[in-house]
Design brief:
Structural class: alpha+beta
Distance between the termini: 36 Å
Oligomer: single chain
Number of domains: 1
Low-confidence stretches: none
CATH architecture: 2-Layer Sandwich
Radius of gyration: 14 Å
CATH superfamily: START domain
Largest sheet: 6 strands, antiparallel
CATH class: Alpha Beta
Number of strands: 6
Mean pLDDT: 91
Strand content: 25-35%
């Protein structure tokens, strides 16, 4: 099996309207409020939400002990409010599908 053959699927259920979840995952003002893990934070997020548009999300330790990194790439497909296909800088695809209630 090669890396290109691997698929990781995560499922989350939110008690929120699909339109609100769409905004949370696409609006930079919202992304910086949730895109982090434990002792990390997102100091900035930039999105050009269209096929071919770019995205950039900064990540750094919350204590600022390290410089951190930038998660970046392009949008391959946008179907509001159902589906987002992103290709991150190393070529891997991330597909987000928002189901209806």
């Amino acid at each position: 099996m090669t890396v290109t053959d691997r698929v990781l699927t995560l499922t989350r259920v939110f008690d929120a309207p699909r339109a609100l979840v769409w905004t949370a995952v696409t609006d930079p003002d919202h992304i910086v409020q949730w895109m982090f893990a434990d002792d990390w934070e997102s100091p900035f997020a930039e999105t050009d939400l269209r096929a071919g548009g770019a995205f950039r999300i900064g990540m750094r330790p919350a204590d600022h002990s390290l410089d951190g990194f930038v998660l970046d790439g392009t949008y391959r497909e946008i179907v509001k409010p159902e589906r987002i296909v992103q290709v991150i800088g190393d070529g891997r695809a991330m597909i987000t599908t928002l189901g209806s209630p």
